[in-house]
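Pipeline run #58 for the internal structure catalog. This entry was flagged by the ingest filter as a single-chain record with no existing model, so it goes straight to prediction. Upstream metadata was stripped on purpose; only the residue string is passed forward. Reviewer on rotation: M.T. Logging verbosity set to normal.
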Amino acid sequence: MNSQSVFVQHVYLDAVGIIVGKLEKDGPLRRYFKNYIEDSYFGESTFELAQKKLSYQAIQIALRQSKYESEDIEIAIGGDLSNQIHASTSSVEKYSFPYIGVYAACASFVLSMILGSIYIDKQITVNALCFTSSHLGVSEKQFRYPNEYGIQKCDTNTTTLTGGVALILTKNRNKIKINSFTVGKVVDVLSKNVNDMGTCMAYAALDTFKTHLTNLNKNLDEYDQIITGDLSLYGSKIFIEEAKKMGYFLEQKHSDCGSLIYDITTQDVNAGGSGPTCCPVVTFSYFLDKMLKGEMKRILVIATGALHSQISYQQKQSIPCIAHAIELEVNYAY
């Protein structure tokens, strides 16, 4: 029995809620974002409270799009980059549904979708709420330096998205189906450079990509796109080059959410975007739109995460990485 890569049945996308910051709204995908904030504080006194509010608002948006009321949600699964995933936990404290907090760094959202899919596939629940959030001000303060410090950044640095994403999965038939998933393994290439996490995460993405195709006997031709979460400019190049050595030619098949969310030629974002919301914001706006329009039938989404801590990198420890994958397809029988 293969427990790493699994097919699921009767798991569908019910509703999506997305809210982004001004930098994301000003980017090339602007037309997909109806809900956005102009003020990074979102009317709050701290960035941390703003992130909590973004998470809460994303859930509210998803619930308004769904046939489910908050009282109908049977399980909620969420996580983020803030210490002890506080933004996620505090954003659902007013709800009555059961909650599971998860952490896989920038791969947290896909991990929550995997767990939600298991709950529904195994008929434990009929629905699952998956959510995440991130904030540039919170992540910079926690993992690098506060923005106010004004430190010069490296070309390989990425910019954490400000936003929130929530998604409701259901057992009831709908247009978009969850077909399968692969739970990633920890991959550590012994990199200690926290200013270039795209490079080390690329190898985790490669491992999960190959594992998914091998374990489930899949061919690259079955997918319209292989989508990575936040490898951005430098990590994406490595992902494509190393995949070619394995016999997979991805030049026309690969897209990276961190490379799509911003215009790196006109926006001051260095190597592109990152953060827990990076993958789901782009996937469930830009790529979901293409699937609903019939321009794409099946995509493989590989979310990547760097699993270092504030202490581990200061102690010069290497950065372990993870990548979780989930396969989405159009349900033409709907």
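catalog note: The CA atoms of residues 176 and 330 lie 5 Å apart.
catalog note: The mean pLDDT is 94.
status: ready for reviewer M.T.
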